[in-house]
Amino acid sequence: MDIARLLLQDLLKKYESSKAFTSPGPVQRRVQLNVYKGEFKPYDIEDYERKVHIHQVISQLRDEQLIDYTWMRGEEQHILHRIWLKIERVDAAYDRAGLVSPKAEAGRVLAEIDIAWTDFQHAEEEGTTDSIAWIGTVLADMRRVLSERQRLTSPLPTSREQALKLVAALRGLIALSLSGQQEMPERVFSIQIYGDSKAFAQQVRTRLASLIRRYLLPGLLGHPAERLDDLDLSEDELLGLVNLSRSPEIFEWSGPLTLMRCGRQLDYGFFPLCGTLSAAELNGLSIELPAQVQRILFVENRTNFYWLMQQRTQNEDWQDTLLIYHGGCFSPARGHFFHQVQKAAEHASASRAEPVTVYHWGDIDLGGFFMFSRLQHSFFPQLKPWHMDCHDLLSNISQAQPISRAYAERLQALLVDERFAVFHDVIKIALERGIRLEQEALLGK
């Protein structure tokens, strides 16, 4: 048993939880162990040989100016009372104990954060920080926490290695923003940042997704993070918000659409059932709506999109409708595609007596309302909900799902938010009945 190491570890652990650890100046209160009261477990006054050995060890540590101590009154050289750390020699105590100071670990990570901050400022100078403003907030929080706490703690991992990898990922996202690239495969990102195609997925992915949920999502949806806890978003969806994907994102629609680039055009009316486009093909692309398209319907859920796609091909009443798979919390790349649809709808409406009407079909719940609001405020101010009203909720109440008290409180908050005024009536019913409804419940009706 290495008594010296055990003793210093106990003292340093106490030091790290004391005011002395974070205070920039001297602190009068000692960082000490009351040995007589059993705060150093190996010390047993009934075990003479061990006691003598410990006395020899602490004498040596005092000679090294790492600690000091006192004896019980009347038991000098026989029974220890208190042992305390010499704060002015704390770095030497860490070395002697074979430990790395949390301050030293924090300092190394802070140095990398400062480099990332310089990258972010460069992006600001280039005018490309709109999409990565959240990273500036993350870095500021990390710097503040390290300065105040002098240790690795949230929003950083407690492991120095993992913290450095996370900061490296943030630097990679800043570089991706500066490059103007719409989308990057995760494995390519991992190789570029870590020199290993699997390092990101194995060690960083989950932590970065957590930061995105905490720092980016509230800004996108216009609500504080605690109100978004019930949004069921996968890591894939969250990472898609920063242009990282496992594979190229594919956009899907059903209905006539003309794609144009460099004076050439492609008529997707040739594909009566479904058209698709890779995010990799977005650059330089524009969209035109044929005259027959009178309305556009965004469908949040893929199952519902496929069901409507079949209905469209079998029903003449749907031939004037362009169906677009929405996909939930859309990525910047999908947002770019939606923006092209927006411009096409505006161009078509300008030359017609009746404008193109745009609808959104989503769940009758927090997520559905948030997705509608984001699509409306990002691209389509006149957006209308489709099958998301009181009648739809009540007529399918047998398939509704119960909501928790916390969920109801988050739903209640939308009633004082005018951005969700179109849903206030259905929200009131959802609260009265304590339910929510997924859009799949309406299939076949």
Describe the structure.
It is a single chain. This protein is an alpha/beta fold. It has 3 domains: 3-97; 102-245, no CATH class; 250-442, 3-Layer(aba) Sandwich (Dna Topoisomerase Vi A Subunit, Chain: A, domain 2), CATH 3.40.1360. Helices cover 47% and strands 13% of the residues. The protein has helices at 3-16, 19-22, 48-63, 90-97, 102-125, 133-149, 160-179, 186-194, 199-221, 235-240, 302-314, 332-350, 366-378, 390-395, 405-413, 424-433; strands at residues 32-34, 67-71, 80-85, 184-185, 244-245, 250-254, 258-261, 264-267, 275-278, 286-288, 295-299, 321-325, 357-361, 384-385, 401-402, 435-436. The strands form 5 sheets. A 6-stranded mixed sheet has the order 9-6-12-11-13-14, with helices on both faces. A 3-stranded antiparallel sheet has the order 1-3-2. A 3-stranded antiparallel sheet has the order 8-7-10. A hairpin with an 8-residue loop joins strand 2 (67-71) and strand 3 (80-85). The longest helix is centred in the first third of the chain and has 24 residues, at 102-125. The chain is elongated.
